[in-house]
Amino acid sequence: MMVALLVVVGCPAAAERITSDAPAPVADAPDPGADLWQARLRYAVAIRSGAERAATGNLAYQGVSPNDFSLGFRAFPLLDRHLGLEAGLQREAFALFDGTSDVTGGGLLRADLGVSGRLRVARLLGLDATVGYAFQQVPLFGAATTFQAIGRHALRLAARAVVDLGPVMLEGRFEYPLVLGTTVAQVGSSGLGAGGGVRVHVLQLDGLDWGAMADVTWHSDTTTRAGALATQRIVRAGVALDVRARRAAPVTTGRVTLRLTIDGAPAAWPLIVQTPTGPLQVTTRADGTAELPQVRAGVLSVKAVKDGWLGGEAQGELRAGDELALALALTKAPPTVGTLRLVLASKDPAMSLSQTSVAIMPWQAPVPAPDADGVVTVEGLAPGLVSVKVSAAQFVPADEAASIVAGRTTELKVTLVPIRSRLPASLSGLVRSARGGAPVKARLEVLELKKVVDADARGSFATEAPGGKYTVRISAPGYLTQTRAVSVRDGDQVIFNVDLSPK
Questions:
Q1: Which residues of the chain have pLDDT under 50?
Q2: Mind listing the pLDDT tens digit for each residue in 139-151?
Q3: Residue 466 in contact with residue 443, Cβ under 8 Å?
């Protein structure tokens, strides 16, 4: 026999408060595990449908209950807010009508108590897992459509995922009762539940975070008895008042004030502040000041990005909730290098110093070409002696030295001599006998120049030659011939004496 009935779950007199719990951990909040406890009072409308098939007949029912209340509580006092307890209670009135006639009714109860663990998976995502005891009543009817509340004892396995975005929190739930037994002999029962909701922050008052939540829960229950099978599906949609007691986040930041002066005057300049969380770039204002209102406590250092100045660094320790003032006073660093000013000139004003190259040792960088006035300026030279080599087309190469002084400009004047106006070197000397030192009238041959010079009766000789390296052969009758290597420069006066050994 099929009976279509309407179920109204609860009138105000028959309904009781229920505890359905749901603390929402804030994923990676400023202070991890900041929830001390959480309570939730929910009012919902339940949409129920059910059916029972037995040898004596079939029963089907469906309806809406406007008064479905639940209350939940959750707290995490252990292991830095990662381990705690949760409890829930739900009581609903159940009434079965056939048209306008009251057929039967009663009350249904759900209660649970368990241990919860909390895990943060990512910055905003938190997971809760609960293991505990659950007592759940489901309706069962006899042949005379008599209401019975069948209770089942179960090991409750539940999980919850929370995405906490600050003012908005998203929640998803799942539970599975591992049935241990029922209150009526030879009656079996099983079930499943899932749900979720969206919580919106309303206000913060005396350390309590008050929020409103839209919530939906789905339950499925099955009961078997002596060949009879009863099933019910319940969807509860409602709103909840959600309260979280939160531990105040500890103060971990402080304020940093910066002041910069350059040669005693305030200045706007970029600074690099090294904080415990990484470097920050700050630019001071025209009055030389800058502020960082929230900086993680710890050791800080600040550096002025300005090379060639002293006093560009400062360091200090910032304590949480305090203010740290750092001052930088930059002064010009003393010079560590000097400058060479090379002035080139030609001994023949009619000849141009084109294609002139300059090399400075031990300076490794290229030297700029002379300007129109023949001036070459080289900066950044280390103090000490440097060698200056100058070469130009149709001019005799010049090799000079200069002394570099830090912070000063050293001027060196070099006058280049045209090759065609070179002054010859002068070579002179005496040729003597290696035995007794008597003068020897010898002949001297400059092999490279194919030039022959004869010494006089006193053994004296003299000649001229362009600057260079030469081989001189000295010979005389009765003496062993001797060869000498001579190196001269233009304009040099070289004197060398030769002692010939008799044969």
A1: 1-33
A2: 877 656 777 788 8
A3: no
